[in-house]
């Protein structure tokens, strides 16, 4: 029996429903019930969530249902819309919290976009602060980092290009996660792109193979902090126009690093609008407005090449870090302020 109580909470006259958590739990439920027999998984998922909502409504007087779709991609906005339709909710009976712009999916209904939803996902930031790391005295040993846990073709191509360009000056990983379904054909594709490197691929990392992508949030080896420039492979890449700030968008400010975002077009613009220093005097972020994913990748690789040309030795990179440490620290202080002043309460485990 699945415990769904952690995805529902009633406060005053509001029923808050963690749709993103429900959606993930449904995958376990459907697997247990033999998902191959379920023809329309989305319809079944929505019906299952609605049944649990109705059960909660039996024992309470609720005037507003808050559908919390944060900490997930654009897909949960459709789930919210379907829930609204199944329950026949009026516009004054529902509020949707989301991490991405729902555009016209929730037209006619009130919604709030929470850009800070993933700022402490799986409590990565809380646990990082508990370690009391001496950030100022971190010594860089590998200048560039590019981590890609979940494998995709665009990520594979970028990791390969960075590996070829940087050689031993890059800390790299690709696809180092267990229990992630990868078909044989996909595996062949990734292996072909990465050749002569192996798939999964890891170089200069802490050599941890994860049971689940969420595991990467905690107990990170300190050598992962010993890079200065980090290419952040966001959940949504350039071909996905739904900008989402996952924990990856915040993690490298916590790690006192300079990020380059391999993400949706305009992602850097959103990050900059929050007040973060993007070190434009060191990194050219014009890739953020590239016309397509191929040019974006070329621009990112070009930016890395330029950085390594200007700072060709580890000693040069360490000297740069010392000269800008007050700015790296200021980004972390801004992150901490946002973390403490979040307008919406987090859910257990998800942070």
Notes on the structure:
The chain is of the alpha/beta class and 351 residues long. The chain folds into two domains: 5-113, Transcription Regulator spoIIAA (2-Layer Sandwich), CATH 3.30.750; 121-340, 3-Layer(aba) Sandwich (Rossmann fold). It is built from ten helices and ten strands. The chain has helices at residues 19-32, 41-57, 75-87, 124-130, 153-166, 184-194, 247-254, 267-273, 293-310, 314-340; strands at 8-11, 14-18, 64-69, 94-98, 110-113, 144-148, 170-174, 201-203, 229-233, 258-262. The two termini are 24 Å apart. The model has no long low-confidence stretch (mean pLDDT 90).
What structural keywords apply?
351 residues, alpha/beta, Transcription Regulator spoIIAA, Rossmann fold, five-stranded mixed sheet, 10 helices
Helix-strand string: EEHHEHEEHEHEHEEHEHHH
Q: First CA to last CA: what distance?
A: 24 Å
Low-confidence stretches: none
Portion of residues in helices? 25-40%
Choose one word for the global shape: globular
Rg, Cα atoms, Å = 21 Å
Structural class: alpha/beta
The largest pleated sheet is described as: 5 strands, mixed
Topology:
Blueprint lengths: L7 E4 L2 E5 H14 L8 H17 L6 E6 L5 H13 L6 E5 L11 E4 L10 H7 L13 E5 L4 H14 L3 E5 L9 H11 L6 E3 L25 E5 L13 H8 L3 E5 L4 H7 L19 H18 L3 H27 L11
Parallel strand pairs: 2-3, 3-4, 4-5, 6-7, 6-9, 9-10
Antiparallel strand pairs: 1-2, 7-8
Helix pairs in contact: 1-2, 2-3, 5-6, 5-9
């Amino acid at each position: 029996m699945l415990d769904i109580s952690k995805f529902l909470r009633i406060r005053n006259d509001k029923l808050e429903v963690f749709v993103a958590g429900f959606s993930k739990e449904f995958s376990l439920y459907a697997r247990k019930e033999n998902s191959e027999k379920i023809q329309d998984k989305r319809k079944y998922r929505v019906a299952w969530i609605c049944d649990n909502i109705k059960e909660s409504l039996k024992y309470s007087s609720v005037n507003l249902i808050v559908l919390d779709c944060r900490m997930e991609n654009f897909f949960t906005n459709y789930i919210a819309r379907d829930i609204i339709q199944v329950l026949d909710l009026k516009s004054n009976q529902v509020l949707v919290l989301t991490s991405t712009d729902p555009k016209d999916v929730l037209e006619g209904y009130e919604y709030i976009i929470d850009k800070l939803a993933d700022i402490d996902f799986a409590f990565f930031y809380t646990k990082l602060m508990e370690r009391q790391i001496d950030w100022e005295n971190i010594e860089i040993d590998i200048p560039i980092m590019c981590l890609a846990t979940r494998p995709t073709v665009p990520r594979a191509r970028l990791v390969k290009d960075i590996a070829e360009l940087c050689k031993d000056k890059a800390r790299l990983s690709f696809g180092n996660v267990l229990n992630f379904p990868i078909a044989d054909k996909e595996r062949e594709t990734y292996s072909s792109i990465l050749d002569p490197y192996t798939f999964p691929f890891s170089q200069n990392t802490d050599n941890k193979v994860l049971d689940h992508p969420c595991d990467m949030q905690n107990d990170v080896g300190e050598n992962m902090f010993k890079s200065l420039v980090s290419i952040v492979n966001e959940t949504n890449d350039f071909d996905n126009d739904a900008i989402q700030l996952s924990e990856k968008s915040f993690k490298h400010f916590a790690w006192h690093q300079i990020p380059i975002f391999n993400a949706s077009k305009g992602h850097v613009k959103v990050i900059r609008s929050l007040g973060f220093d993007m070190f434009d005097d060191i990194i050219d972020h014009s890739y953020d407005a590239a016309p397509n994913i191929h040019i974006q990748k070329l621009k990112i690789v070009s930016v890395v090449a330029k950085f390594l040309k200007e700072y060709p030795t580890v000693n040069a990179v360490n000297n740069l870090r010392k000269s800008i440490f007050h700015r790296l620290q200021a980004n972390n202080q801004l992150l901490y302020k946002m973390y403490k002043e979040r307008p919406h309460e987090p859910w257990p485990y998800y942070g």
